[in-house]
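Q: Could you fold this chain for me?
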Amino acid sequence: MVLRGFERRLERLVEGTFARVFRSGLQPVELGRRLVRVMDEERSIDVKGRAVTANHYLVGLNPVDHARFSEVSGSLEAELSEAARDHARERGYTFMGPLAVHLASDPKLREGQFSVEGQFQQGPGGSGAGALRFADGSRFPLGDGVITIGRADDCELVIDDPRVSRRHAEIRPSGPDYILVDLGSTNGTLVNGHPVTSHVLTGSDRITISDRVMDFEAS
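A: Sure. Below is the predicted structure, expressed as structure tokens.
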């Protein structure tokens, strides 16, 4: 399922100008298949019982293939990252830091050969990786700083709704986790339909503030 979505996105990528890049030789979907296999191989269970996998991936390519992909390397890295993120959601994996996929030239590989190496890398200050996904598909990445949610213009995430307090809630990094804290708001903060004052977010959590719904992604 993950790779079918990846293939559909690649179809859009290779249309028009970039069609010649993928006309022959190594195909991006081969990279995607190997990437998700490495994710499964790197999976382990942390002290909290969560399934954790590598979050930093280096895709080695022969210099000829690397040069051929150079025009679309940024887009391809983004699509591979999205495929990894989708696979993590499907399998319930957590990352210990921000997810990244990079293409690199490796002269030890023959043309058509490639390698995928996964590494565990914590975010700055030991923070984990996370994002809020909205109904329109857009994402708000969480980093190693506190994210304030509210109606005030100086909030990191502004919700222009009179039912939302000026400083309604915060998302605070805590090691590899993120904690959602209601700041004494008038109308409250819900997680999975239940009011909370403080809650450690997991990859299945849905946050509701007024009419704004956002899904937490632990990746």
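A (continued): Helices lie at 2-13, 28-42, 63-68, 73-91.
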